[in-house]
Amino acid sequence: MGMLLIPRVLNPQVTDEEGRRRFHGAFTGGYSAGYYNTVGSKEGWAPQSFTSSRKNRAGARKQNISDFLDEDEKAELEGQSLSASSQFDTFGFTAAEQSRKQAEKDQYERPSAIPGPVPDELISPVSESIGVKLLLTMGWRRGHSIKDVRASSDARREARKAFLAFSADENTKESLDSLVSETEVETSLDPQSSEDIKFSESTPVYVLNPKQDLHGLGYDPFKHAPEFREKKRSRLSASKEVGFRKPLSMKESLFGPKSGKIAPGFGIGALEELDVEDEDVYAGYDFDQTYVIEDEQPGRPSNDNRLRLTSNEHNVLPGFGAASNSDYSVERFDPPNISKDFVARHKFSGPLEAETKPAVSAPLDVPPPEDNNLKLLIDGFATFVSRCGKLYEDLSREKNQSNELFDFLRGGNGHDYYARRLWEEEQKRSDQSKLLFEVKVSPRVEKMTAETRGSLLGERPLQRSLKEADPSASSGGSFQFPTNLSDTFTKSASSQEAAEAVKPFKDDPAKQERFEQFLKEKYKGGLRTTDSNRVNSMSESARAQERLDFEAAAEAIEKGKAYKEVRRATEQPIDFLAGGLQFTSGGTEQIKDTGVVDMKSSKTYPKREEFQWRPAPLLCKRFDLPDPFMGKPPSAPRARNKMDSLIFLPDTVKDVHQVSESQEPKKEASIEEPEVDLEVEKVERPVDLYKAIFSDDSEDDEEQPMNGKTQEGQEKKNEAAATTLNRLIAGDFLESLGKELGFEVPADVTYPEANKPMEEGNKSKGKPEASFSENRPELKEKSEEKTSSLTLGSEEEKSRKMREKSPRKQSERNDLSSSESSGDERRRKRSKKDRHRNNDSESDSSSDYHKRGSRSRRKRRESSREKRSSHKKHSKHHKTKHSSSSRYSTDEERKDSKREKRRRRD
Amino acid sequence: MSATTELPTKEAHVLKGHEGAVLAARFNGDGNYALTCGKDRTIRLWNPHRGILIKTYKSHGREVRDVHVTSDNAKFCSCGGDRQVYYWDVSTGRVIRKFRGHDGEVNAVKFNDTSSVVVSAGFDRSLRVWDCRSHSVEPVQIIDTFLDTVMSVVLTKTEIIGGSVDGTVRTFDMRIGREMSDNLGQPVNCISISNDGNCVLAGCLDSTLRLLDRTTGELLQVYKGHISKSFKTDCCLTNSDAHVIGGSEDGLVFFWDLVDAKVLSKLRAHDLVVTSVSYHPKEDCMLTSSVDGTVRVWKK
């Protein structure tokens, strides 16, 4: 009960606003809450209106800043606190505070990308303080010094200079500046400069030097080369004059002189990259434009300290003098000490070890063993060991432990002889290598005279010197460098010999001699000796005449030789029946090439060549010309350059089985056929194979862009048409269409032989039943392999397919057609490939190709080729049909649409 | 000299307006107007006889290298560093079509006789034929037998002739489907066809103009004296095919006699490289353009 006494003193009872007791004793009802411990109010209890949260859920309440503020904070926020009015705001604190608040408020009202009041705080409006106002009314002008208006003229001049320097500096930077610094420059600098150019020390100038490069902080690329700083600045200001934009300068600093000369006045778009082609080729080369690339390495120590200082001098701020002695000095290191016995030449330890060997005393000269075989073996082994090193001997000794033939290695029969032989061989080798070494090193380094150089370069030296030219160089058997090199520069020796072998002036030995001399000179190139002693006796005109004769004779020889070689090359396929086909094509190419070179050397420009070229049908149409290739299959494009044949050379060997049948007819054909075509046929084949294997079939659709769009929709119609049409009619129909589209059928101009068999083939198409029944079993075989080919199931298609397959099986019966038809197919593929020559599937596929095993390769190729061809048939079939129906239907559609349009218009 | 009097050696007008190098100046079909194009990415239409700028066409993203007007003066095409061929409407100044496809800068464009196709010659070693009749923007044909940049293209009624840096002048005959390649051994800068159609004048980069017989490929004459080593400078023949005109890199324009290859006249036309020389189709009037940014009209 004592508990009750104490509270009475302290009045511990908790009451609410109206003085009601909050807490009661445990026996008097606990605590009171709400309205008399109810949820109601004075007016009674009103239940909240129920809102179903099912349809309209309570949205997230937007939180307000006031939710989190205390009363006083709120009051402060509303600006109800005490502060100095702006009028008496000497130090501008109030103004700043107010503006900050204002900014905060603004911020609160319209949230910006950058949260918080930071940007506004940065740029606070500066109200003039009362002090400044007073000063201004007293006649003080902004920028003047307060203490002394009439300062000494010297100081003022200095100041002006400094200001000008700064402002100039500032201007250059301004243009390149980002937005922030620009505004800052404006606030800090512009009012002053606009009001008064005069400027005093009393007002601090905040020189902004924003970081514009991509170097690390504090890194100065011009630290040791201040000359270039000036250079760069001038460059920047120059570029600024012509309106360089910031990205460019960025790029410049990144990539150095790459983006060098650009035509004045024209930048390029923001989205475009500055390229090589943007360089102004027409601008004269300006040497002032050359500048040093800013090297990222902080190296480049300037050796001359004085230079650095003097060049810095004009950069010294007014009021500062250049230090007479600089604390800074470049650390210098002495060159490393070279020991006296150091030879500045690297000794190779490996192959030249023979040099040390001779120190070993020579074993006794021992007669060779009686056994001749053993002797041979030992001799051979000795040379081998001497060449490959002692290691090999050890190895083989281990290996042939049990082999009694190699007893001589283990000290058995013939060991002495072996030792002797080995020593001899090594001796020989060391001599050789010494010689080699001498020849290699000493003459080249020391005796590189004009003569040797001349002979190296294939120049024709004066008469005598050729023989003398460095005997050491030409004597060494292993050192044929000069002669080889000169060969490469002039004519190959063989051709000279060949020319010499033919003696057009046999009856007159003197003339023949002169002719040979002429030939030599002709092919030697370089300077010619115009006055030969021997010719002196002849008159000028006679000499000229003879010279003409020689020229003609030389050319004749040349031609004859070229012709012969070509002949030889074209005959070669017969020799290499299976494997050599592709190689020979390379051979012809090369030989022809040398022929070309020869022609060049004998000055036959301009040189005319003719090729087949197929204008696009549409092109002919646009030019109002009949298509010369109307209805002819696309021909093989010729090899683009020599590289083509080179690249595919190694792969072609695998191609043998495919080509072998078609070769025999070619033997006859190849001789008469123009050379270009021949090589094309041979060269392109492997590419087609790759194409067939690896390229996807989608390109078939691209084959004829004109029909491509209508193709898909027409597929069903085609099938229907295919089934309804009589086979025979279909055959003719297809043929004619194919002709019109320039797809299939008769061979082109350059392959006259091809015409016949193809026509035969076409005829046979007319009666497909016959050929079909004939070849039925084969077809079944094939159809099992092919899955896709049978979906269409039109007979003439099969028969066609057969015709193209059959040559492989019936080569004897129908050689020509077989080769040509397959050739045609290939050509078609090739041409397609050529049309899409941008896709690099070719190179990809070839690399793939190499990776795979040869066996699987072959199989795969076969199957894929078949698939491919079947697919091709397929698509071709479609297309031919399409074009007919599509042409028709599109016409119809067009008419319809026109009609509709008209109706609409009406 | 009577020969020189019939040459257009008197300056009639200077057409100023281009900023930077003018890369080509071409007369239209009847010679009443001229189109010029240049490094400033604009094409300008002039009346060269009065020296008035009529219109400026802007759309190219980079320098414009060549321009050619259709025979009916309704359309023209242009090409340049932005790898596209633009097909323009003359009067509205709008681009009707842009032909994209060249992998490099396009050096020259020409319409055919009926203005149904444009042939462009590009840095990507190809000639491309674009169709103006249909709405297709795909090339009708790509001729890519050249081994190097194709610098210049000329069309006849049945042939396409291209000159390339690989030293060849290749004639593509549509009637017989043949390509005739005349190897000159020197990079071909500009080709121009004689008015009788029998000869091709090829400006080579060894400072030589070569006149070729078109049927045989025979070298008929060689014209020397000017400098043409590193810039694309044009050459052309006068209307009577009596004279050969060639621009030089030192700002001169040379006149040769066609037959005996004598330099008849040297004209100090510009201060800098003469990029283009174009002859009036009927009169004795000539346009020269230069890197110095001017186009000059020359008359008798």
UniProtKB/TrEMBL annotation, chain A:
Known PANTHER family for this protein?
G PATCH DOMAIN-CONTAINING PROTEIN 1
The scientific name of the source species is Arabis nemorensis
Under the heading SUPFAM superfamilies, the entry gives: Surp module (SWAP domain)
Q: Which Gene3D superfamilies match?
A: Surp module (1.10.10.790)
Which cellular compartments is it found in? Nucleus
Q: Which residues, if any, are the signal sequence?
A: none
The record's annotation in PROSITE patterns points to: SURP (PS50128)
Q: Which GO terms describe its biological process?
A: mRNA processing; regulatory ncRNA-mediated gene silencing
**Is Metal-binding tagged as a keyword?**
no
Q: Where does the record place Basic and acidic residues bias? A: 99-109, 461-470, 656-670, 756-768, 775-787, 795-815, 889-899
| Name of the featured protein | SURP motif domain-containing protein
Q: What is the lineage of its organism?
A: Eukaryota, Viridiplantae, Streptophyta, Embryophyta, Tracheophyta
One Pfam family, short name please? DUF1604
Q: List compositional bias (Basic residues) regions by residue number.
A: 827-836, 852-884
GO molecular-function terms, A-Z: RNA binding
Principal localization? nucleus
Q: Which GO terms describe its cellular component?
A: nucleus
Region feature (Disordered): 99-121, 456-481, 656-676, 689-723, 748-906
UniProtKB/TrEMBL annotation, chain B:
Q: Would the keyword Transcription turn up in this protein's UniProt record?
A: no
Spell out the residue ranges that the record assigns to WD repeats. 15-56, 57-98, 99-131, 267-300
**Annotated SUPFAM superfamilies:** WD40 repeat-like (SSF50978)
Naming one, the record's GO cellular component terms include:
cytoplasm
Q: What are the subcellular locations of this protein? A: Cytoplasm
- What are the entry keywords? Cytoplasm, Repeat, WD repeat
Q: What is the lineage of its organism?
A: Eukaryota, Viridiplantae, Streptophyta, Embryophyta, Tracheophyta
Report what the protein is called: Uncharacterized protein
Q: Does the keyword Repeat apply?
A: yes
GO BP, one example? mRNA splicing, via spliceosome
What's the source species for this entry? Answer: Arabis nemorensis
InterPro entries under this entry? Answer: WD40/YVTN_repeat-like_dom_sf (IPR015943), WD40_PAC1 (IPR020472), WD40_repeat_dom_sf (IPR036322), WD40_rpt (IPR001680), WD_repeat_MORG1 (IPR051980)
Q: What family is reported?
A: Belongs to the WD repeat MORG1 family.
* PANTHER family, sorted: WD REPEAT DOMAIN-CONTAINING PROTEIN 83 (PTHR22842:SF3), WD40 REPEAT PROTEIN (PTHR22842)
